[in-house]
Amino acid sequence: MEKQRYLVLTHPSKTAFGDFQTPLELARAVCGLIAQTGFDPASILEPTCGIGTFLQAALETFPNARRVLGFELNPHYVSQAQHVYAKIRSQARVEIHQANFFLTDWQALIATLSEPMLVIGNPPWVTNSALSTLNSANTPVKANLDHLRGIDALTGKSNFDISEWMLRKNLEWLDGKHGMLAVLCKTTVARKVLAYAWQRGMRIASASLYHFDSRAYFGVAVDACLLLVHSHPAGNSQQCAVFSTLQTHYPARVFGWQDGVIVADLALYQKWRALFGTGLKGWRSGIKHDSSQLFELRVEHGKLINGLGEVVDLEPDVLFPLLKSSDLAARRQPRLWMVVPQQTMSDDPSRLQVDAPKTWHYLTTHADLLDKRKSSIYKNRPRFSIFGVGSYSFAPWKIAISGLYKNSNLLGYHLTKGVRWFLMILAISFRATLKRSAISCTNS
Questions:
Q1: What range does the domain containing 340 cover?
Q2: Spatial separation of the C-alpha atoms in residues 77 and 17, rounded to whole Å
Q3: The pLDDT of residue 407
Q4: 156: phi > 0 → left, psi -120 to 50 → alpha, else beta; which?
Q5: Which of 147, 149, 197, 332 gives 20 to 30 Å between its CA and that of 69?
Q6: Taking residues 268-282, what's their average pLDDT?
Q7: According to the model, what pLDDT value does residue 408 have?
Q8: What is the longest distance spanned by two Cα atoms in the chain?
Q9: What pLDDT score was predicted for residue 331?
Q10: 3-state class of 322 per DSSP?
């Protein structure tokens, strides 16, 4: 069984090590799929091998491989892997080394491997922010590789799966070489990694994505897949075939890079391409406040109640109906009200002392809770600030999108006066908000 660990060995939890064991059955199925493509590697590398399940399956499947390398952080698993491979008869030169992925000179190593080369494995399913929460020091060197604006980096876009960073590196190693990347990962990570490669013109001959049941193999409800990327010096493909299972022979659809964006279904995109517009300047996230206990209110018997169970009396001008992701998916009216102390990001909430004294008293009474909000977005900002608020938050109408649900819908929504219908055909659930509403698309 194979384990993935990428933290300094000071935290005992399985979460800390992204500990998902790869059954030999699954590893063999992956190697079998690779063999079906006709790919026959001379070199095999697993940068995160655990006790080497994938390498065992690869040795069984590819007898022509001349060199097989596995790297693992935990010395205990290195010893186990070395003991296992000492009993395997193979013509290949098998090496198992203890190494930290983030400190290894991979480019120098790759230069010593014969082509075609196979990079295989199951990197950790844990995010950068999760490692920070665990006080892990074993993370990539921080760098704004995607050139995010400061505000975007602070409000969530900078949080990434560690496997995404690692798979980007894997593809960079193989760029311009005859090789294949075969990894188990979250489906969202696979799409992001391919978009990264396509956007940078990496030389990819073909790519395919096979869904599998992560609950059956790992006991977790995650949308996961096997990602196969075949690299070649002459490769110029920017498409990826999507298969429903590891056993499926024909793709359900093909997604790819088109017109500067990643397209979920290239066939449908070509059919409706004439409708593609250029007026949209970008989507905005909903209002963020990091204190649902105080900023989100429910109505009980005609009274507003906060998350602490307190009856709240505030000025109507600071209260707005709140739609959460679950409301969008369930097609229901807003159930909550949000306290919005600012009109813009630069607005100082202290103006409420005059404009809305009851609200100001409410905020100052609970200042101890609000002052404990940890996000760096609040540093050097006025007290009681929120973020993600601006003129767009108070527009007469808007379209709200929840990225947490996959099913597409064709929806209409009643607004306050009269009826307006917003018809949408997109890959995720949509909903228009009530007039004057403030949107939050936080997890709920």
A1: 292-439
A2: 13
A3: 64
A4: left
A5: 197
A6: 77
A7: 54
A8: 82
A9: 79
A10: strand
Instruction: Using the 3D structure, point to which of 272, 304, 323 is the last residue of a domain.
Output: 272
Judgement on whether residues 312 and 250 belong to the same structural domain of the protein = no
DSSP bridge partners of 226 = 184, 210
CA dist 190 and 164 (Å) reads 8
| Residue 305 host element (H or E) | strand 303-305
**What percentage of the chain reaches a pLDDT higher than 90?**
53
- Token readout for 86 is 């000492």
Q: Which two tokens stand for residue 23?
A: 């059954």
* pLDDT beyond 50 at 100: yes
The crossing angle, in degrees rounded to 10, of helices 187-199 and 162-174 is: 40
User: Within 10 Å of residue 417's Cβ, how many Cβ atoms?
Assistant: 7
Secondary structure (3-state) at 331: coil
DSSP 288: B
Domain co-membership, 298 together with 379:
yes
Q: Kindly state whether residues 256 and 386 are assigned to the same domain.
A: no
CA-based nearest residue to 442, from 326, 314, 348: 326
Spatial separation of the C-alpha atoms in residues 324 and 443, rounded to whole Å: 7
What are the beta bridge partners of residue 257? 262
* Residue 209 confidence (pLDDT) above 50: yes
List, in order, residues 6 or more apart from 137 with CB less than 8 Å away: 8
| 169 and 113 co-located in one domain | yes
Two tokens, residue 29: 């199925």
CA dist 397 and 436 (Å) reads 7
Do the domain assignments include residue 3? no
Inside any domain, residue 4? no
> Per-residue DSSP letters for 405-416?
--------B--S
Q: Which of 186, 196, 240 is nearest to 218 (CA)?
A: 186
pTM greater than 0.85 (yes/no): no
- In this predicted structure, the answer to whether residue 15 has a pLDDT above a threshold of 70 is no
Burial category of 279 from C-beta neighbours within 10 Å (exposed 0-12, middle 13-18, buried 19 and up): exposed
Tokens for 369, please give them: 């809770």
Structure tokens at 94: 């098998």
Q: For residue 400, give the nearest of 444, 433, 435 by alpha carbon.
A: 433
Same domain, 33 and 125: yes
* Tally of structural domains, the chain: 2
Same domain, 194 and 268: yes
> Rounded to 5 degrees, what angle do the CA atoms 375, 378, 380 make?
135
Retrieve residue 26's tokens: 């699954």
Alpha carbon distance 113, 117 (integer Å): 7
Residue 403 has pLDDT above 90, yes or no: no
Indicate the residue type of 138. Answer: N
